[in-house]
Amino acid sequence: MALERTFSIIKPDATRRNLTGKVLTMLEEGGLRVVAQKRVELDQEKAEGFYAVHKERPFFNDLVAFMTSGPVVVQVLEGEDAVARNREIMGATDPADADEGTIRKALAESIEANSVHGSDSLENAAIEIAYFFNENEIVG
Ligand code: IDP
Ligand code: MG
Questions:
Q1: Is the pLDDT of residue 28 over 80?
Q2: Which of 93, 97, 99, 111 to mutate to test the pocket of ligand 1 (most atoms within 8 A of CB)?
Q3: Engineering a disulfide at 75: which of 7, 37, 64, 84 sits with its beta carbon 3.0 to 4.6 angstroms away?
């Protein structure tokens, strides 16, 4: 086990339904600690850059429209095996496939409006954290 940092987003479907606190409680009760956080609105360029890896996928334009449709909360989470732990707490991409007790099973509206983002590797976590935060904004 290693102490890691991962990148997380509370997506617009969750902020719109006033579920920010519920998501945070599930992350914290799952053993993760918020060490940086801000509420922002993504513009098209920022959202397209963030999801650039998906730009050839058929859902890319819809995904960018969704992610710019309202406020998001971007955050850095710290904990033992934080990257994998966060993915466990989130659940599968499609809420229909997500395990009981996960954020997406409990809260997500659809495969697109699925309430949370989480980095899929330690390497991508570092890239995604740097896309939104300066080192001096992360306070462990
Ligand atoms: P992840 O968020 O579980 O890592 P990814 O495959 O990286 O899933 O996809 C990024 C995001 O794109 C998803 O969280 C979801 O919002 C959206 N997405 C993924 N697959 C689909 C789809 O088939 N239709 C619509 N949106 C999708
Ligand atoms: Mg992903």
A1: yes
A2: 93
A3: 37
Residue nearest atom 5 of ligand 1, based on CA coordinates: 93
The pTM of the full predicted model, rounded to 2 decimals, is 0.98
Neighbouring C-alpha atoms within 13 Å toward the C-beta of 74: 20
What H or E segment, with its residue span, contains residue 138? none
Which of 50, 55, 59, 120 most suits a substitution to test ligand 1, by most atoms within 8 Å of the C-beta? 59
Q: Quick one: which ligand is closest to 9's CA?
A: 1
List pLDDT tens digits, range 43-70: 999 999 999 999 999 999 999 999 999 9
Handedness of CA 32, 46, 93, 128 (dihedral sign): negative
DSSP codes, 43-69: -HHHHHHHTGGGTTSTTHHHHHHHHTS
Pairwise CA distance, residues 127 & 2, whole Å: 19
